[in-house]
Each structure stands twice: as structure tokens, then as C-alpha cells.
Amino acid sequence: MKFTKLFAAGATVLASAAALAACSSNNSSSGSKKSINWEENAEIPTMDMSKATDNVSFNQLNNVMEGLYRLGKDNKVENALATKTQVSKDGKTWTFTLRDSKWSDGSALTAKDFVYSWRRTVDPKTASQYAYLFEGIKNADKISASKAPVSSLGVKAEGKNKLVVNLDKRIPYFKLLMGFPLFFPQQQKAVEKYGEKYGTSSKYMAYNGPFVQTGWTGSNLSWKLKKNNNYWDKKDVKLDAINYSVQKTPSTAYNLYQSNKLDAVVLDSQQTKNLKNQNGYTIRPTASTFYLQYNQKNKNLQNENLRRAISLSINRKALGDALGGSSKPAKSLTPAGLTKVENQDFASKTADTTYTKYDPAEAKKLFKKALKELGKNNVSVDILSDDTDAGQKTTETLQSQLEGNLKGLKVGVQNVPFKTRLSRSTSGNFDIVVTGWGADFADPISFDDLFTSKNTQNNGKWSNTQYDKLIADSKTATNDEQRYADLVKAEKLLLEDQGVTPLYYKTEAWLVRPNIKGIVYNAAGANYNFKEAYVSEN
């Protein structure tokens, strides 16, 4: 899956030690074997699945909600609410038989809850930034463009336990999509009862997953997931609680780990070097790429030679070293290792060797050319990122490298909370923004679709008609060979123009207590599945 999405630029926001100690009084390390204390890398922006766009929100939704399928190890599709799936010969009609299950309030969950959820997400009134993932489901595009009624979406309930989905075209990754929280059911009663408050705190929700969330007020930095006693498979849920706290300071987080108040922490660059041989050291690939988006409303940044000069001025290896983990310099938008095409990594097929490298001499030439084209002697830009440790290190490193290599370029930095960064990105309130995107599913279209002209995640508003056509052609290709060829051409075009500037493929280094077992982690989506996690007594 990766399912995701937008990432916070880095790991670790500081919850007070007192607050953390309070939520840790019954933790796994102090005697109880039924709860764990987990770190999150940023505050939760929303629990409304129709409006979520980020890794933090979807990770929560993945554990408190459930859809037709659940993704097991290595993205293996496993039945969740669906007990049986039938697919027509042309691949356009999917019929799901649902098991009997309940919402957290004890009311019955039915096929109508899926119909309501999907219609709500594609409804233009909801303004979901993720509605484009419904493309291919009958009439979804027309509905999103306000050219067809929401009721015409190709999904219907036949009785209580049968869901029928009609597609306009075969979707190669449709089964993976069904394991992504965007396609989970929503309880109409809860949405209508809470109105604008729905999804803004733990209490304004209805849950159907292994856990229910408590204690999140909409802005605080600690909360809990508790076992859902109305979950259909509660016998396989071993944990009573997961105590979450947001950590922005790696040194503080590690101290909390050492004092048994956290059971898992993300490591910064120095910690990665010092602790790589410690028991519990774990490398987590995230199937994600961090990159720069340029606001095309900024006349200076409309200049492709300025964008190319900026890219050539970035020492990506030095940036990765500053951030820690095992993050690798990125030469493509699609992350390395996501998909293989003809036994070759897709990312290697699209890798840019002209502008996505460190070449200060060529950068200076292109910068002088850009200044001449702009009719200026100097240029000023601001770089926006998160207020996390890694977000601050990213902007500091970029500022130093760009100003050091491009005399006449003045770089300001702006580090704000993750939720604020998302809001400013969406509204176009930036010059350059550091963006992290994780795969929603293990296919390059999860990345390449982002930069079509009308995609809501294309915050910089880069636009290219040839690129749009290639992406559109890939979606109607009759075979995978042609589909991948179109995607390769599109991504190469994007990188040649430096419509975005890839920085690094994100890999995180963690310390996780070795006695915590059964966690399923999938790089595509960088999501954690705690359904069958437990604490070993050994």
C-alpha cells in the first residue's frame, strides 16, 4: 500500500515528560505486558479519512479503521471485512461479500457504509485532496468535476453484506487500493452527528478497526489506541493499548527510551552512528522520496535554469549524512526499490544524471544564465519545512549549500509545525517547500500522478501538456510494458525540467525493544499494522 502520502520532514515534537510519564504508567516495560509506548513523528492533522493526506493520519486510521482488505507482510492482501471477492472476466466488476461486523458503538456495519464513505470522498463539497485515487471507478472523475451526481458513483450495496463496484476501466492495482484507508467505510450517523467536528478529535469519530483512539483533542501531542471490544476479530488483538507521544527532539526521545518510557524511537544522524550495533536497532525503508516543490506563481522560480541551478548546488550525500538513518541521495521521483520493471528497478530507469547531481561549477553557469534571463543581479527565496529536528537540519543544510554555491541567491528558511506546513503547501503560501511523499501502493503512478496539471497534490502548480498526456496514456495502456514506458518518459520529462527537485529516499533508523513482536510494517505506505502485535515475556 502507502500507502501515504505526505511525510513530516523528519522524526522527532516534544511531549512533556510529565504527560508522557502519565500515559506510560501501565507500559510494557514497567510490568504490564499488554501495552506499548510508541513515538510518532508529528502531530495528527486529521482523523477524517476523506480529508487526510499525510502519513501520520493514515497510520492512525490504519489501526482504528478497517476496510475490505488488510495488508499483511510484504503488502500481501488479506481478507478483512471482505470474506469473498468475485471479479468479472473483463476486470471491471468487483463483488465483495462482507462479514458481519460492528462499529465501536455496537451498531451494525453494512455495505451501505462503504457506499456512503466513497460518495462522501468524491463529492466536490468534501474537497478531498485524495479523490483522484477513485479515478477508474465508474463516474468518479465526472463527479469530482461536478459533471455527474454523487449517486452515480460505481458502487452499490446489495443487501446488508454485498458490495458491488463497477469500473470504467481495469485498474491493475485495484486490490491494493482496497487496503488503503481512503477506501474504508465511514459511519454516516457519526459524520452527520458531529458535522464540522467529525475527525477533529478522538471523541468525534466512530471506529471499526482493532483499536479505538482516545485522548486526542485535535492539537495535543499524546493520545492512546485502546483495544476495540466490538471488533470482529478481537481475539487476535493482543495489546490493550498503544500509548502515542509526538517527539521532535531526538535526544529527549532517546532518553525516554533509556528510562523505559518509550519502547520505540527514531534516531538522528549521530545516534544512528553510535547505536547501530545495539540490540533493537532497526532500519525502516519508507518507499518515500523527499523533494523540493517550486511555486510557479513566483516569477523567479518559473525560470527552469534557476531551478536546475538550485538542484545542481545541492550535495545530497551531505544532506543525508546530516539527517541520519540510511537515507540515500535521490535521482528520481519514484523511490528506489518500489517497483521492478523487466527485472530492473523502475527508479533506475527514470534516474536523472544531468541535473540531479552535485555540480557547483555547472550550477554557477546556469545561475548566471537565469539571472540574465530574469534581468536581475540577485534573487531571494524562502524554503518552507517542518519544525522537526530533521526539518530544521534540512533547511539549514540547503540554505548553506545554496548560498555558498550561488552568489547572489539569498535563502530564507521557515520551519513550522507539520499541520501548518501542509496547510501552507495546499494554499500555495510558499516559495519552495520541502515535501515528502510515500507510496500509496507499490506502483510508480502513486508518484507520477501527483504532477499532472490538475492534481490537488501538485502544490507548486508545475504544468506540462506532454507530461499530462503521458500520464493519461499510461492509464489506458493495454499492457504493462506500454504503461511503464509512458511513466518512464513522463518522469524523465519532469526531472529534465526540474518541475520538482528530488533530495533523498527516506530510510529511518529506529530502536525498537526486541520483546515487541508481531508488528507488520510495509515500506509502501510506511505504515504500521499493530493488529497482532504483542509483548513477549522472554
Q: Can you describe this structure?
A:
With 538 residues, the chain is of the alpha+beta class. Helices cover 30% and strands 23% of the residues. The chain has 17 helices and 26 strands. Strands 1, 14, 15, 16, 19, 20, 21 and 22 form an 8-stranded mixed β-sheet that branches. A 4-stranded mixed β-sheet has the order 2-13-12-11, sandwiched between helices. The protein has a 4-stranded antiparallel β-sheet with strand order 5-6-10-9, with helices on one face. A hairpin with a 5-residue loop joins strand 5 and strand 6. It is globular and about 70 Å long. Residues 10-31 have low confidence and may be disordered.
Can I get a quick summary?
The protein is an alpha+beta fold and 538 residues long.
List the quaternary state of the chains: single chain
Radius of gyration, in Å, reads 23 Å
Share of helical residues: 25-40%
Give the terminus-to-terminus CA distance. Answer: 32 Å
Structural class: alpha+beta
Global morphology:
globular
For the structure shown, list the relevant keywords.
23% strand; 4-stranded mixed sheet; 17 helices; 538 residues; alpha+beta; 8-stranded mixed sheet
Strand-helix topology:
Blueprint: E1 6-7, H1 17-23, E2 35-40, H2 55-64, E3 69-71, E4 77-79, E5 82-87, E6 93-98, E7 101-102, E8 108-109, H3 111-122, H4 140-144, E9 155-157, E10 162-166, H5 174-177, H6 188-194, E11 211-214, E12 222-227, E13 241-246, H7 250-258, E14 264-266, H8 269-275, E15 281-294, H9 304-312, H10 316-323, E16 328-329, E17 340-341, E18 344-345, H11 346-350, H12 360-374, E19 379-386, H13 389-405, E20 409-416, H14 418-427, E21 432-438, H15 445-448, H16 465-476, H17 480-497, E22 500-512, E23 516-517, E24 520-522, E25 527-529, E26 534-535
Parallel strand pairs: 2-13, 19-20, 19-21
Antiparallel strand pairs: 1-21, 3-4, 5-6, 6-10, 7-8, 9-10, 11-12, 12-13, 14-22, 15-21, 15-22, 16-22, 17-18, 23-26, 24-25
Helix pairs in contact: 9-12, 10-13, 16-17
